[in-house]
Task: inverse folding
């Protein structure tokens, strides 16, 4: 069955000029000095994984509509146009109370692909045409004092992803709910206190947004955030690839696939983050709770045995024609009840276990460290480019994000000014990911991870590409078409490639 007539019909409609004045830009370039990168951007989130092995629920990635800087910049751009007020511009009531919302729907499908065999956690090779995910978020907050704010976000996530979001480490839909047993009830996504300590009298004009209610921010400041949040609300942000609602939707393109950041099944944790922001340099440190089991819904509150330390630096030189550059190195250390691939393999070879099972060899307080690099560069003619690289040690199990021990991603986007649709944006990106020798041996012997497990493995690096076009339809409403190609799904050369077209609808209100 051919999917292309259905998919190709949508871009023709979505690209048609909107009726009425154009409004918010889908992905505007960040302002020269405005946004505080450490201020979170509502990471539109919703991923949960439906693992088919022990009580391991996979976690939904914090959904983020572009890093906070992008939301701010979109509004800043609109404030210059009296006929086109920004969607978020009037959501701060009486200068103290914030209320806004968003809805995101992603439909994806795929045709059959080559697959001589499949296992419990394989990406299905048969036709799939019923994968529709949704994320509905209500952003609220109140300004308690001049520099103290309380944020509370309620969320509902539902629908499903292709193959229950199994079988691909760099999965194609960041919003997917991978654990249907969690139900579809509304839940508290975020609730945290945000305190700003000004270090200078100088201010930078900054329109309010769902995470920061000030009309201007101190040029130099210290910020403290504590409560429930997504770690990627604050860490590893990127203006080109961090937003599954207006940009890319792939897990390893919107985020660093090797960043095994602390989070429960829905992608949130309890954490405290301290950061410094200045015109040229930023640093942020976060301490967060880890889940009790890999991708589990419950968090371990005992910091003596389970926790995550995260440290990110940011340097903002202007090397290329005075355009913005962001260089963000990242390091993290997780302490958790993790198992080792080597021990699981040894127990299987000694006939202690019938199949390799890493969940039977977990030890409390096991350490797993990793590193990342996030580069972002503005370019002439409304182009922007990014690069992400990441690595984590592959002796112990992937625990909180996805099964990936190394990654390299690069991509770019372009606003629609050149063809008279400045609110539109087109982007393309490529990512390649790999796993360690012990990790691949574990899967080759029939072991299961919380995402992967074909029963066998002819190892090859997993490689994905994604291209999207987002069209602004009318105030707050965006439609997009996308095309993803996954080579060696689940790091298996015997399967694929899988071609995954999709359609997305997003609304801010």
Result:
């Amino acid at each position: 069955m051919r999917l292309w007539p259905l998919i190709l019909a949508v871009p023709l409609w979505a690209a048609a000029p909107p009726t009425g004045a154009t409004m918010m830009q889908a992905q505007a370039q960040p302002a020269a000095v405005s946004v505080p990168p450490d201020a979170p951007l509502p990471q539109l989130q919703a991923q949960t994984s439906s693992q088919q092995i022990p009580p391991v629920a996979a976690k939904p990635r914090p959904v983020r509509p572009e890093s906070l800087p992008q939301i701010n910049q979109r509004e800043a751009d609109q404030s210059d146009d009296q006929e086109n007020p920004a969607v978020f511009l009037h959501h701060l009531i009486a200068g103290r109370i914030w209320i806004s919302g968003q809805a995101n729907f992603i439909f994806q499908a795929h045709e059959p692909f080559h697959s001589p065999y499949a296992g419990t956690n394989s990406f299905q090779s048969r036709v799939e045409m019923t994968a529709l995910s949704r994320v509905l978020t209500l952003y609220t907050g109140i300004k308690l004092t001049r520099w103290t704010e309380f944020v509370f976000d309620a969320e509902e996530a539902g629908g499903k992803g292709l193959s229950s979001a199994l079988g691909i480490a760099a999965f194609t839909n960041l919003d997917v709910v991978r654990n249907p047993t969690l139900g579809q009830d509304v839940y508290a996504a975020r609730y945290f206190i945000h305190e700003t300590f000004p270090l200078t009298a100088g201010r930078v004009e900054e329109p309010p947004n769902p995470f920061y209610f000030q009309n201007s921010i101190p040029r130099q400041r210290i910020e403290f955030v504590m409560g429930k949040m997504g770690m990627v609300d604050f860490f590893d942000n990127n203006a080109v690839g961090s937003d599954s609602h207006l940009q890319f939707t792939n897990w390893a393109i919107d985020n660093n696939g090797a960043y095994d950041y602390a989070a429960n099944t829905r992608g949130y944790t309890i954490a405290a983050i301290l950061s410094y922001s200045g015109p040229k340099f930023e640093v942020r440190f976060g301490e967060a709770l880890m889940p009790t089991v890999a991708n589990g819904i419950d968090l371990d509150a005992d910091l003596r045995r389970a926790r995550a330390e995260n440290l990110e630096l940011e340097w903002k030189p202007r090397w290329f024609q005075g355009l913005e550059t962001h260089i963000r190195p990242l390091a993290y250390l997780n302490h958790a009840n993790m198992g080792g691939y080597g021990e699981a393999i040894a127990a299987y070879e000694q006939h202690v276990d019938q199949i390799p099972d890493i969940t039977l060899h977990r030890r409390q307080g096991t350490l797993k460290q990793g590193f990342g690099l996030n580069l972002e560069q503005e370019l002439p003619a409304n182009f922007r480019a990014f690069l992400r690289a990441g690595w984590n040690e592959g002796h112990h199990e992937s625990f909180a994000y996805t099964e990936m021990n190394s990654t390299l991603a690069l991509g770019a986007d372009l606003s629609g000014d050149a063809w008279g649709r400045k609110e539109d944006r087109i982007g393309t990106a490529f990512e390649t990911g790999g796993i360690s020798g012990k990790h691949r041996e574990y899967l080759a012997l029939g072991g299961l991870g919380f995402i992967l497990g074909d029963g066998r493995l002819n190892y090859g690096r997993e490689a994905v590409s994604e291209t999207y076009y987002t069209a602004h339809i009318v105030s707050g409403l965006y439609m997009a078409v996308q095309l993803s190609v996954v080579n060696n799904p689940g790091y298996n050369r015997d399967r694929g490639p899988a071609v995954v077209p999709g359609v997305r609808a997003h609304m801010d209100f």
About this structure: The chain has five helices and 21 strands.
